[in-house]
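Lecture notes, part 5. Sequence design as translation. It can be helpful to think of inverse folding as translation between two languages: the language of shapes and the language of residues. The source text, in structure tokens, appears below.
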């Protein structure tokens, strides 16, 4: 396809720019064999549903062999399937069945760390002379037996260093001690991982989501973890050895990303990644000292400033557009409205997402407006991050209610309750008690209900997915923010050659007035069909107008 000039930069068009990705968290998507755990045959049974939605790519969260300390983000064998999800034959059947429906699969590759049960780590910890010793990061204790000076708190609580009795040295892990960081400075680590990547591409997958990929360039002795000095070289090597030869699609999870670093990682001429997830709209919710556990309310004006910066500064780089994922609270509960305006606000969030530059990612259940959950007791929670946080804060004297409020609002299990397929037992997810509790609103909020409702959230997503495939102005149009300081209205324009679109969203629970000097035709709306752009907008009313040429 021809190149475009966007904000003065030459942009080569890719099919995955206008495609939509659907993220599946396998353990919570569909159980096929009645053990209460989602699995790969369950996913195969739902491919026609995804096809009907108009999905082009599935991002499949880890299904590799794993002790499941972090639900599969602790891999013990990259080329084997965890039995609870099925067999390698099931995985090959999924790839084939998806391809037959025109759906590509990208797999979640956890390359920053392995499970401590991985053969490499078992060898590495066995002796200081073992050839695998330097696959990981080991340091001598100091005279007092303490770990190195550089000793940040792990994402899951506690120190990032764990003393291993066998050889009396500390090993480094940014997440759980069951997830030792790989030493990416070691050429054998790079080669071993390239081999795994190429093996999976030969199985017929289309690419990868790269877990915390900005951490692999770390320089521990310089105290640098994210966006380290070795990152770009490592990504360029990986691209040359693996991605480019097979036109693989890659999306990096990059919590540290800024528009500047994102351009370095995703401009096509740099030969690194296809696109990345940046998290500024999530991080703005985090408390400066207590992060997500004492989160602040969503601030629309701050959001608009970030949005304008990203949309205008990413140039010919590319990003993923998302509201939620398996680590984040439910989008409609965080950015929309859980009560009377749940449906219009869920559609409003979808319309914003699909009207922006960047590939849209739908997290399972977002298409029906699934909400956060509030389990009675901490024992009902499953996530290692949540459980470690609870026990750590209880030991530090935090009130139970304070901790639970943080978990209700931002705990990762909000996104991991079983997919709500129907109002029948266990929401049609399983014939048995699921591995984690259901959200008790599944009888009102489920796919079966959405499919029989002509103006459901689901059909709004279906319309937006189709629209992006046929209206390039939404995919490539230059972005212009209007009313930057308005606390209720998000209004922006997209321009491409003679085409122009105007997006007007009242992202509040109160009516808002908007006046605009010009005419447009409603293409998508969540409150019936507007004839005028100017006027009053209902709570969470959103409209995409075609301003014509
Ligand atoms: O997440 C990276 C990560 O840092 C998140 O866990 C984040 O810190 C936290 O959830 C924000 O509150 C990736 C995976 O998406 C996550 O599921 C894994 O637990 C983690 O890496 C380790 O692999
Ligand atoms: Ca199962």
């Amino acid at each position: 396809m021809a190149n475009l000039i966007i904000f003065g930069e030459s942009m080569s068009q890719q099919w995955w720019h206008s495609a939509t990705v659907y993220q599946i968290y396998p353990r919570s998507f569909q159980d096929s064999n009645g053990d209460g755990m989602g699995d790969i045959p369950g996913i195969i049974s739902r491919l026609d549903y995804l096809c009907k939605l108009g999905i082009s790519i599935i991002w499949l969260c880890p299904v590799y062999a794993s002790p499941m300390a972090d639900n599969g983000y602790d891999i013990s064998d990259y080329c084997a399937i965890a039995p609870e999800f099925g067999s390698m034959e099931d995985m090959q059947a999924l790839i084939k069945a998806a391809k037959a429906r025109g759906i590509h699969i990208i797999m979640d590759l956890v390359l920053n760390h392995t499970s401590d049960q991985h053969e490499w780590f078992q060898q590495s910890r066995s002796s200081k002379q073992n050839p695998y010793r330097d696959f990981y990061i080991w340091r001598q204790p100091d005279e007092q037996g303490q770990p190195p000076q550089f000793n940040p708190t792990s994402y899951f609580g506690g120190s990032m260093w764990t003393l291993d009795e066998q050889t009396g040295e500390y090993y480094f892990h940014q997440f759980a001690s069951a997830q030792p960081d790989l030493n990416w400075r070691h050429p054998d680590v790079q080669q071993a991982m390239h081999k795994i990547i190429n093996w999976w591409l030969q199985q017929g997958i289309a690419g990868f989501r790269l877990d915390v990929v900005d951490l692999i360039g770390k320089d521990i002795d310089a105290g640098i973890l994210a966006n380290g000095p070795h990152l770009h070289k490592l990504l360029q090597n990986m691209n040359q050895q693996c991605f480019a030869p097979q036109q693989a699609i890659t999306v990096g999870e990059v919590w540290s990303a800024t528009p500047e670093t994102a351009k370095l990682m995703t401009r096509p001429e740099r030969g690194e990644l296809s696109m990345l997830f940046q998290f500024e709209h999530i991080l703005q919710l985090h408390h400066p000292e207590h992060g997500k556990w004492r989160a602040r309310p969503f601030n629309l004006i701050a959001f608009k400033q970030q949005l304008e910066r990203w949309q205008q500064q990413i140039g010919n780089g590319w990003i993923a557009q998302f509201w939620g994922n398996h680590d984040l609270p439910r989008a409609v509960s965080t950015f929309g409205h859980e009560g009377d305006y749940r449906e219009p606000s869920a559609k409003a969030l979808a319309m914003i997402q699909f009207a922006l530059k960047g590939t849209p990612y739908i997290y399972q259940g977002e298409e029906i407006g699934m909400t956060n959950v509030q389990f009675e007791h901490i024992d009902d929670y499953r996530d290692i991050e949540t459980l470690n946080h609870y026990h750590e804060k209880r030991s530090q004297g935090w009130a139970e209610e304070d901790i639970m409020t943080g978990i209700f609002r931002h705990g990762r299990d909000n996104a991991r309750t079983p997919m709500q397929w129907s109002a029948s037992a266990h929401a049609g997810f399983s014939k048995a008690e699921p591995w984690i509790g259901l959200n008790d609103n599944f009888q009102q909020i489920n796919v079966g209900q959405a499919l029989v409702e002509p103006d459901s959230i689901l059909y709004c997503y279906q319309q937006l997915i189709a629209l992006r495939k046929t209206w390039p102005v939404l995919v490539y149009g230059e972005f212009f923010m209007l009313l930057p300081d308005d606390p209720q209205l998000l209004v922006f324009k997209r321009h491409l050659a003679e085409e122009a679109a105007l997006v007007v969203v009242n992202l509040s629970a109160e009516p808002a007035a908007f006046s605009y000097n010009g005419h447009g035709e409603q293409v998508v709306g969540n409150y019936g069909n507007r004839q005028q752009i100017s006027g009053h907008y209902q709570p969470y009313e959103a409209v995409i107008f075609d301003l014509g040429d």
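The translated text above is only one of many valid answers, since several sequences can fold into similar shapes. Residues 527 and 541 are 6 Å apart (CA to CA).
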